[in-house]
Amino acid sequence: MSTFVAALLNSLDIGMLLFVIASGLTIVFGVLGVLNFAHGALYMLGAYFALTAVRWIELPFWAALVIVPFAVAILAAAVERLALRRIYARHPTQALLLTFAFLLILNDAVRMIWGPGYQIIDPPRALTGTFVLAGAVYPLYSLFVIASGAAVGLAVWLLFSRTLIGKRIRAAALDRDMALAVGIDVPRLYTLVFAFGAWLAAFGGALAAPMRALGPAMGDRIIIESFIIVVIGGLGSFPGALLGALILGALHGFGGRWFPQFDIVWPYVGMALVLLLRPHGLLGRSA
Amino acid sequence: MLRLEDVHAYYGESHVLQGVSLEVREGEVVCLLGRNGAGKTTTLRAIMGLTPPARGRVVFRDRIISGLPPNRVNALGIGFVPEDRRVFRGLSVAENLQVAEARGRRQRRWPLERIYDLFPMLAERRDQPGDRLSGGQQQMLTIARALVGEPDLLLLDEPNEGLAPVVVQQIGRLVDELAATTTILLTEQNIRFALRHAKRGYVIQKGRIVHDAPTDEFRTRPERLERLLSV
């Protein structure tokens, strides 16, 4: 029983973190039609910014968790304005190449600024320690990650279903020309959405910092897992990102516990199965 | 109110508008007649800025609007109802209207309550997804969606295309009603609809205006119009 509960918590903690990150990727794709290769690098930037905030500026972790995602979002907004915006009209592969270039730049920038070694951040004092649930001993911080992921997911859902700006974003995603023609400032929304996607990636990075080692390649694994999640869930589908992330979390949480030697393989097996059986993803719309 | 001066526009390589000039005066209902592919839709898209003119200018109330993005054109008071309706499919009827509302205006001629009075059918279905509506209902929704943007000039692109005769009648009544307060430029293939509801007409052929006359003249000399439209 306790093994099962531990595996379940593990799945949820990995899954909710991945959900926050992958939802940013899928929202940006759904609205802008851009598959942001640099999304994992933005996650990494969130983690390193948090490291700097906590260790060098000596901010409390909570403050870092609030400020860092906004800093990364502003950076992303500038990138969208200055570079990405110019190539929407061109073939999608060009946006892919451009964001891939950002990924390389950011990876090397991180190596230059923070060095090639691994670093760690301590979790905030209130969340250090463990708790016991049904016999399983588990870090308190993981519970915080699960709760944060759920809160962010709920907030994003409310944003898109209840607010005017969320509805306008959906309209722009459904029909860009028509959205423009009814007076929606679509270019401004694109900047906002790209920045918001970066916010989600960076929030995930700052949130993950206290439980994962920070290294210059930490974003690469995440971007691959995020791709797998959105493929499983359906490209551009927000509920799909949740489902895909939970599936991937379960593959790691349960699969990793009982078949650890296959841990790296599970996500690919899952993706291959989905692609074979439902090429548009579990919750994706067929094109 | 609106003036097109020698407007040229391209769709990819093809030169769709080859120097369109026309004028719509305040309070008029003007019809742009032409066959499929003559350039009717592109003319309206060029006015909106959706297909920006490569040459020539579009002047709206003494202001050059060619080159402005469509959302700015909309904000200046031009509403657009596209031919294929294009409701936002995943959004409910109410949301379709909300996203298009001109909230900044001090004076709202078309607040949502008035829209729902005018289109009780939309009020009944306000929580339904836009794409669950029938073709005629979708057309009403796109017209309503243009109205909540508070247009002074309304562009209607083939408002009757593919709709049942009953719906065409409804739309005709609506056009007459709107004409009291709004200037309208509509495109049409259906000559009878155009003659009944427009005061003046232009005939467009291969991207050029080939004829321009009050609809009365078309009415008294229909053979001339038939000839222009059937070449």
Summed up, what is this model?
Chain A is mainly α and 287 residues long. Helices cover 72% and strands 3% of the residues of chain A. Chain B has two domains: 2-77 and 152-230, Rossmann fold, CATH 3.40.50.300; 93-150, no CATH class.
Tell me the Rg of chain B in angstroms: 17 Å
Helix and strand composition category of chain B: alpha/beta
Which CATH-level-2 architecture of the largest domain in chain B? 3-Layer(aba) Sandwich
From the spread of the alpha carbons, the general shape of chain A counts as globular
Helical content class of chain A: over 70%
How would you characterize this protein structure?
Chain A is mainly α. Chain A has eleven helices and two strands, in the order H-H-H-H-E-E-H-H-H-H-H-H-H. In chain A, a hairpin with a 2-residue loop joins strand 1 (130-133) and strand 2. Chain B has 231 residues and is an alpha/beta fold. Chain B has helices at residues 40-48, 70-75, 93-98, 112-118, 120-124, 135-147, 165-179, 191-197, 215-220, 222-230, and strands at 2-11, 14-24, 29-33, 55-60, 63-64, 78-81, 153-157, 183-188, 200-205, 208-214. Chain B has a six-stranded mixed beta sheet with strand order 6-7-8-3-9-10, sandwiched between helices. A four-stranded antiparallel beta sheet of chain B has the order 2-1-4-5, with helices on one face. The two termini of chain B are 31 Å apart. The chains are: A mainly alpha (287), B alpha/beta (231).
What is the strand and helix layout of this fold?
The complex is a heterodimer of chains A (287) and B (231).
Chain A: H1 2-32, H2 39-56, H3 61-82, H4 92-114, E1 130-133, E2 136-139, H5 140-162, H6 164-174, H7 176-181, H8 186-208, H9 218-233, H10 238-258, H11 266-277
Antiparallel strand pairs in A: 1-2
Chain B: E1 2-11, E2 14-24, E3 29-33, H1 40-48, E4 55-60, E5 63-64, H2 70-75, E6 78-81, H3 93-98, H4 112-118, H5 120-124, H6 135-147, E7 153-157, H7 165-179, E8 183-188, H8 191-197, E9 200-205, E10 208-214, H9 215-220, H10 222-230
Parallel strand pairs in B: 3-8, 3-9, 6-7, 7-8
Antiparallel strand pairs in B: 1-2, 1-4, 4-5, 9-10
